[in-house]
Each structure stands twice: as C-alpha cells, then as structure tokens.
Design goal:
67% of the residues lie in helices and 3% in strands. With 115 residues, it is mainly alpha-helical. The protein has one domain: Multidrug-efflux Transporter Regulator, Chain: A, Domain 2, CATH 1.10.1660.10. It is globular, with a radius of gyration of 17 Å.
C-alpha cells in the first residue's frame, strides 16, 4: 500500500503493518513505548488507526528503521523537535507523490514512443 491507498477512515493493525513493512508486534511495541502512538480501539479492543496515526508511525519508522535511532532516542527527538520531524515527513510524502507522477509520465512517454 502507498499514500494513495489512504482513503479509508480507519485501518487495521495488519493493514498498517503492511504499509510500513513491519510486523504488527512492532506497532504494538511502539504504541506501548510512545505516548504519541495511540490508535483508537473498537468495543472489542481492536486497534483502529487513522491517517494521522499512520503519519506519526511513519515518522517513528523513519527514525528507527532508516536513521537507526533507539526508541529512547525517538522519544527525545519527538520531545525536542517534533515540528522538524513532521515537516520532514511532509516533504518526504510530497516527494514520493512527485516521483510517482513522474514515473507515470515516463511510462506514458514510453507507451507513446512505441507507437
């Protein structure tokens, strides 16, 4: 799944885990350790993630998986420079959308040039 798939109101833990390419247990761990990660719960206790929850998890994912920070490091970063991290995530989201559009244009050019 990618950002264009973010059209529903709520997502299951398995859908979010698939989006981020991490096990559901990782999401549960991040939720336990980080107060900023707190999906809603259904009456039965099932986690229901919103797009803002997913945005927060993308920040955590980038900090942990791509930049190599520990959870304690993530806590410190989010306390001291949350706005910077949110802005970085927005820029990454926009760049990904631009790349997707450019790839679509390239595919279309290739299709037309073969005619």
């Amino acid at each position: 799944m990618n950002d264009s798939d973010l059209k529903k109101m709520y997502y299951s833990i398995s859908e979010v885990a698939n989006m981020l390419n991490v096990p559901a247990s990782t999401l549960r761990y991040w939720e336990k350790e980080l107060s900023s990660v707190s999906p809603r719960r259904s009456v039965g206790g099932t986690r229901k993630y919103t797009t803002s929850d997913i945005d927060e998890l993308r920040i955590v994912h980038r900090l942990v998986k791509e930049e190599g920070h520990t959870i304690e490091g993530v806590k410190k970063i989010l306390r001291s420079r949350r706005n910077v991290e949110v802005n970085k995530q927005e820029v990454l989201k926009r760049l990904t959308a631009i790349r997707s559009e450019l790839m679509g244009m390239l595919d279309e050019y290739d299709r037309i040039s073969k005619l």
